[in-house]
Amino acid sequence: MHKDDAEQSGDLTLRRSRGRPRAFDRTAALDAATTLFWTNGYEATSISDLTEAMGIGAKSLYAAFGSKDALFTEALHHYVRKYGGLAWDRAREAPTAREAASAFLYDSAAALSGSVCDMPRGCMATIASLGCEGLAAVGEFAASIETTFQRLEARLKKGVDDGDLPPSVDVAQLARFVETVQSGMSVKARNGADRAELEGVAKVAMAGWDGIVRAANAEG
Amino acid sequence: MHKDDAEQSGDLTLRRSRGRPRAFDRTAALDAATTLFWTNGYEATSISDLTEAMGIGAKSLYAAFGSKDALFTEALHHYVRKYGGLAWDRAREAPTAREAASAFLYDSAAALSGSVCDMPRGCMATIASLGCEGLAAVGEFAASIETTFQRLEARLKKGVDDGDLPPSVDVAQLARFVETVQSGMSVKARNGADRAELEGVAKVAMAGWDGIVRAANAEG
DNA sequence: AGATTTATACAGCGTTCGATGCACAAAGAT
DNA sequence: ATCTTTGTGCATCGAACGCTGTATAAATCT
């Protein structure tokens, strides 16, 4: 689809193309664009803002990324690749579904409040899904990645298989709940909530966990 | 501040001003603008979109509302006045804090999914707080109304006073949790979640309630 | 070395943005 | 009846938008 499918990385490793070489680091430029989109949203970020932050001219931007839409799509994927681990690394290694959910929510609290490293607040994907509904890029993006809900649902299913979660639990509903709490954290982080506040939310959510599982047991 | 402080309503009740009377219903126009901002967000809504939906000319819009920012602020207040009851009416009359929280979450699920009446999905205020960070109107608005958090916190405090909630409960933290769940619902609603899904989230949240309260009791 | 290919810098394209100036219409005030 | 005040319709304003045409610079290919 793209004419520059060949170049996987900004580095000048092997596979030099013919003409004049690019004078800027493509990955670094994408990094800058991602941060800008993440901070200000799609509509509020202009090409001028982007070229300034990326340190390149408009013509180079279009040559390297195609269009504002395409750049935004690439920025979204770059975001997930680069920052997704902040919420998932510990959760993936947790032995039980409960510990996975707890790790996911606490680590999300830390990441979304910008406490882990220097980064904008809130989840870029969540913000994009709200602010840019008309944009085709967002729909394509959502369809192209494994969503938070799918990951959570899969992990909870594994919990049922492993026996640390009773089969009476509605894993889809529970996954939806955890995802909703994280989305809400994203909103609160964007509105200034600090790490302690978000961890308080995670704590309350997890304090209810056993009751939730028990309720499902009594029902089913 | 505004030159048209005198006119409280669009109706031609008493208090006619001097010049030519307005040819359109101000409240109906504000209604149309609110729906449009709610649906598309601030940035994605142009003056042309507004004038078309409101059925008036640009000059009349500026004469009646001042500017796009001022119109948006007024639309936000109009939204809270008109739709706030959907989430709060039943909760306000609930006898206990628990029933109030449950009513708030279930009624939010119904309203946010657009199931109560014909209206856009998600909470306009939540969406505005995310999409329009640079906008002065949003900050002023947030400072000028009693927020969801403040209402929830006050209701939970009353629950402690009434004795249906133990004093060991951190009401601020619990209020923050409920507010976060509602914000998350708003995001999910915006992304297509239907009423049943959102009610599932409310159900899971409330299934954990007693465990949350009990955990606070054991801790404090 | 010469030809080809690609990137860069600069200026500017057509469009849309939020907001206004102007002439006229319709009401109250005198 | 006339003056004053205000709303409306139309035509635009300057600025910013996303994007591109042109000329030049820097690399590879033959």
Map the helices and strands.
The structure is a homodimer of 220-residue chains.
Chain A: H1 26-40, H2 47-54, H3 58-65, H4 68-93, H5 97-112, H6 124-131, H7 136-144, H8 148-162, H9 171-190, H10 195-207, H11 209-219
The first copy, chain A, binds a DNA duplex (30 and 30 nucleotides) through residues 16-23, 46-48, 56-60, 62-64, 67-68.
Provide a short characterization of the protein structure:
Two copies of one chain form a homodimer. Chain A is mainly alpha-helical. The first copy, chain A, is about 70% helix and about 0% strand.
Structural description of this entry:
The structure is a homodimer. Chain A is mainly α and about 220 residues long. Chain A has eleven helices and no strands. Chain A has helices at about 25-40, 45-55, 60-65, 70-95, 95-110, 125-130, 135-145, 150-160, 170-190, 195-205, 210-220. In chain A, helix 1 packs across helix 4, helix 8 crosses helix 9 and helix 9 runs antiparallel to helix 10. The first copy, chain A, is elongated.
